[in-house]
From TrEMBL:
Signal peptide: none
Taxonomic superkingdom: Bacteria
Keyword Ubl conjugation recorded: no
UniProt membrane topology term: Multi-pass membrane protein
Ranges for region Disordered: 1-21
Pfam families, per the entry: MFS_1 (PF07690)
The name this protein goes by in its record: MFS transporter
A GO CC term attached to the entry: plasma membrane
Organism: Kineosporia babensis
PROSITE patterns per record: MFS (PS50850)
Cell location: Cell membrane
Transmembrane segments annotated in the record for this chain: 41-60, 80-98, 110-129, 135-155, 162-185, 197-216, 228-247, 259-277, 297-321, 369-392, 399-418, 424-443, 463-484, 516-534
Predominant location: membrane
Length: 547
């Protein structure tokens, strides 16, 4: 057994330094299952993965049923988007706090606490007829985002060190499986029952997986003998929340709207206040020396870029393949105009025309999109994530990060040219799946080998907060880019002029070509460059040993 003090903020008083070292000394191997059978270790790993799979499930399934929610609650599209954006808002604001709480009070305990809140939230969503109560339920569900932080720490504390690099890859696989099954499961539930069945399913699923985890997974004895920095947690959480509100709602309110800018300014001020507070407080939420270290800071930048690129690609894919085929699209727009004029579409001639290339549409249903397109991206990520973990264990986590970001950048570059047919999407998706699988096996291993066990939860939470900000930022950027390339309806006026109207939610070919390049390939290339600069991850992953 080895005992290692975690890094803390420098203390001016030697007595304070000794006290901090005493509080932060942890026995990293106290709960490690070194003598457990392979079957026991697999059961522990699978139990953790099954519980945390609910995070991508609840995000994806809620996104799919937004039209049903609009009919059930009588809400506009702008209000409906809160059902999804609340996940990033609440989850992003609380994820670092949950990670720190796991370091202090036990990771299994925090997993089960998050599970309990999720169960209550799912029940509220399933039974309520009130929109505010529904959003409150979604807020409780969103706290489960913190489970994606705790799971890595629990794996680090419990599994033999040689298992950890590959187990981290399997966690990425589990999240990809959830992303794969979500649309299919959601389609089956809503077709057979109603949108409420989605939340009943998540209610039951979480109860079952939480019970399994309770009996199968032991609690980690690794604790930091510390107290919670309540002020730091509040400053960081509310600061991140303010920035996320601006990024997620700016396109609806207006990017220069006074209220939107107030959220952005307030959020940034609070984050600066957090940094100032952490530099002075005796027991910081996370030592700034660690937060500023290249091993952590550069990984944060990478996950901001790659998560953002992935979110943009996901939205691109839905728009491209759910848009009707070009002949059907043109007919659906021009036939009502011709009928109103009492003539045929052909008779309209050049007096009414559409401007912009829209040859990409396929008119897929949600189920077709899942079975023909998204299933392949998820399957490839599932296949490559454990391999990425193995490469990290054999050669170092920097290598799969470099391969992953380069592969994803190449895929986005190819998609910018070939994205009109699902076969193209699936074939190029092999490269993107490799990139996603390798990246999500690499970054947790880089963090595990860079931070002490006593700071694993809060460190991963900080990194995941950057992921939430990246998702919101790139979604906002994509919305602005798509809005700049609408399909236009040109109508001739009696005085010889023309009236130009934009077709809602239909975008030209150039929009997707540019988004694949600017919001897909470019961020991944920047992440690749950051990976080249990384000094960590150049030796075989150690599962947190000797940190």
């Amino acid at each position: 057994m080895t005992e290692k003090p975690t890094q803390t903020a420098a203390a001016d008083d030697p007595a304070d330094a000794l006290e901090q070292a005493r509080r932060h000394t942890v026995d990293e191997d106290a709960g490690r299952l070194v003598n457990a059978s392979r079957a026991r270790l697999v059961a522990v790993m699978v139990s953790i993965i099954l519980l945390t799979e609910v995070v991508p499930l609840q995000i994806g399934m809620t996104s799919i049923i937004l039209p049903d929610l609009g009919l059930a609650f009588g809400q506009s599209a702008g209000n409906l988007s809160w059902a999804v954006s609340v996940t990033g808002l609440i989850g992003g604001a609380t994820i670092a706090l949950i990670g720190k709480s796991g370091d202090l009070w036990g990771k299994k305990r925090l997993l089960l606490t998050c599970a309990g809140l999720f169960i209550v939230g799912s029940l509220l969503c399933a039974v309520t007829t009130s929109w505010p109560v529904f959003l409150a339920g979604r807020g409780l569900e969103s706290v489960a985002l913190g489970m994606t932080v705790i799971n890595y720490g629990l794996v680090r504390d419990l599994l033999p060190r040689t298992w950890i690099p590959v187990a981290v890859g399997f966690i990425g696989t589990g999240l990809a499986v959830a992303g794969l099954l979500g649309p299919i499961l959601c389609g089956a539930l809503t077709d057979a029952f109603s949108w409420r069945s989605v939340y009943w399913f998540m209610f039951i699923y979480m109860i079952v997986t939480a019970v399994v985890l309770f009996f199968v997974v032991p609690e980690s004895p690794v604790r930091v003998r510390d107290r919670l920095d309540v002020v730091g947690a509040a400053l960081f959480g509310t600061g991140v929340a303010g920035v996320l509100v601006y990024l997620s709602r700016g396109s609806t309110w207006g990017w220069t709207d006074a209220a939107a800018l107030a959220f952005l300014a307030g959020g940034l001020v609070l984050i600066v206040a957090f940094l100032a507070w952490e530099a002075r407080v005796r027991v910081p939420m996370m030592p700034l020396t660690l937060l500023r270290s290249p091993q952590v800071l550069l990984v944060m930048c990478c996950i901001f870029l790659v998560t953002g690129a992935q979110s943009a690609i996901g939205v691109n894919t839905a728009f491209i393949f759910r848009t009707p085929e070009e002949p059907e699209l043109r007919a659906s727009i021009l036939e009502p105009i011709a009928a109103q004029a009492g003539t045929s579409v052909d008779a309209l001639g050049s007096s009414v025309r559409l401007e912009g290339a829209v040859s990409y549409g396929s008119g897929f249903s949600v189920m077709q999109l899942a079975l023909l397109v998204t299933i392949w991206l998820s399957l490839f990520a599932v296949a490559f994530a454990p391999l990425g973990g193995y490469i990290a264990r054999r050669y170092g986590a920097r290598l799969p990060l470099l391969i992953g970001t380069a592969s994803a950048a190449l895929a986005c570059g190819l998609w910018s040219v070939w994205h009109e047919h699902w076969q193209q999407q699936a074939l190029i998706g092999i490269l993107f799946g490799l990139g996603a699988g390798f990246f999500y096996a690499a970054w947790p291993n880089l963090i595990i080998d860079s931070v002490p066990a006593g700071l694993q939860g809060v460190s991963t939470g900080m990194v995941q907060s950057f992921s939430s900000i990246g998702l919101a930022a790139f979604t906002a950027l994509l919305g602005s880019l798509l809005a700049a390339h609408p399909l236009r309806l040109i109508s001739a006026l009696p005085d010889g002029g023309e009236k130009v109207s934009e077709i809602a939610s239909i975008h030209t070919q150039d929009a997707f070509t540019q988004s694949y390049l600017l919001l897909g390939a470019l961020p991944c290339l920047i992440a690749f460059g950051i990976g080249l600069a990384l000094r960590s991850g150049r030796t075989p992953a150690r599962g947190g040993a000797h940190v």
